[in-house]
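---------- Forwarded message ----------

FYI, see the Fasciclin domain-containing protein record below. Original note from H. follows.
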Amino acid sequence: MLRRNFLTVIGAAMIAGTAMSPAKAADMDIVDTAVANGSFTTLVAAVQAAGLVDTLKGKGPFTVFAPTDEAFAALPDGTVETLLKPENKDQLVQILTYHVVPAKVMSGELAGKRTKVLTVEGERLSVNGMGNGVKVGSSKVVAADVGASNGVIHVIDKVLIPEG
């Protein structure tokens, strides 16, 4: 029942209320999928500023817990602008790579479980699939299983900040 409810919430490759054809999304890599959606302009700008575009266009597979523009907007005033400055590139890379798992993890592997996944940043991220939906750290997965040629995107409602 939980898995069914979770899959009902995520629908067929919906990102923040905007449908993407699963076939179309699967033909594009993670970066192109995020760009095409239009709900991740801040994330895409951050990935560009961090110099991670080529990495996320690479072979993968990757799982990206992708914060929406609204998630970035909820950060304290000035946070995004500060992180995008060249002198803060290392911190930006640390935050962004905390959102990436170096494997393809589908929602079915998360629903109904509590686990920790190792991120590219090096820390483990708590995933709680018990209860109503899936939480990753303090954020909620609002859409999942958005296919890309080199992995999958799960849309989250908050920016994850590594403890270190």
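H. also flagged this: Strands lie at 14-15, 18-19, 62-67, 100-101, 114-118, 124-128, 135-136, 139-148, 151-156.
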